[in-house]
Amino acid sequence: MQDTPSPRPIGPYAIIAAVLLLLIGGFAWAAGWIGPKRLSGGDVADALEHNTGAPQPGYRRAHSKGLCLIGDFVANGAGAALSKASIFAKGDYPVFGRFSLAGGNPLASDGRNVFRSMALILRTPDHQEWRTGMNHTEIFPVADPQSFVELQRASTPDPKTGKPDPAVMKAYLARHPETKAFQDYIKQAVLPNSFGNATYYSINAFRFTNATGEERFVRWQMVPETAVEGLDKAKLDSLPRDYLFKEMVARTAKGPSRWHLIVVVANPGDVTNKATVAWTGPHKTLDVGTLTVSKVETEEVGNCRDVNFDPTVLPAGMAPSDDPLLAARAKVYSTSFDRRAGEKPGPSAIGQDLNARESAR
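The chain above was modelled as a monomer; its predicted structure follows.
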């Protein structure tokens, strides 16, 4: 009977080579050199610039028209049941941020049925930081970065008509019923007549972890103490160009505006990876504190212009969900920041107007 030769043991050099190949392969995949092409922040920024018609040097590629805000957040301690983040410990914490409108044209009219947005940076004495960017709608028109790029291209205005090509947009909507559903939603939704009376939504889901290690998916809302009043959508064309920004300046001069931070806890089965899907029906909610905006400033003198409101900058106890838009937002915000950092800063539309009035005094 012939002996079967024993297999040779794998030598240390072969193991090292295998590990190196694995590391190189992983790096190449992460870099996008192999596997399906993944969008970069530059791809999304390019699509935004394409939609606008030309980049506006010195301005954000999205939400380019904005106003700085300053205030504080008073946590009531209830949020500690959901997250160990220091911002939810009972106390008073400084806040700064930005009100803005969707779009890449800083001189665009406020008479558009587009996102009103609030971006914030909240900091605690132990050097934790929470950055968040919220819109006044509960849902978003797309669920993933590729769809967002496709939407920017499909909705790019034709230079001859000033409107998107109907055939191109129709073909896009046929492939993306979620965008059509958003269009129907925003047509019916109230369009706030002030930044100060709008509810702002996280839109994306996040994961909270408390001190005992319990994890929950959540979304949140900034709910104003002032009742919302809506604009007449049939008369948006007659709205003064900077109506919303001037209104917020005048409102704040009379007194602060306040919102309650309401955290909504996901139910079993709630979708956490698609910002196009609203959570419906009864949910557990917690009022975890009050945001007060006591001052607004133009971007020329405020501290919000040269800031990246990346929503994935989170304190311990808070983490992104599996929503692919979150990683994409981080990438494109970074790209937009880098591009405008190399350009001469430009004044906001509202800033030009206010500065002219100040000079005339």
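The first strand starts at residue 65 and ends at 75.
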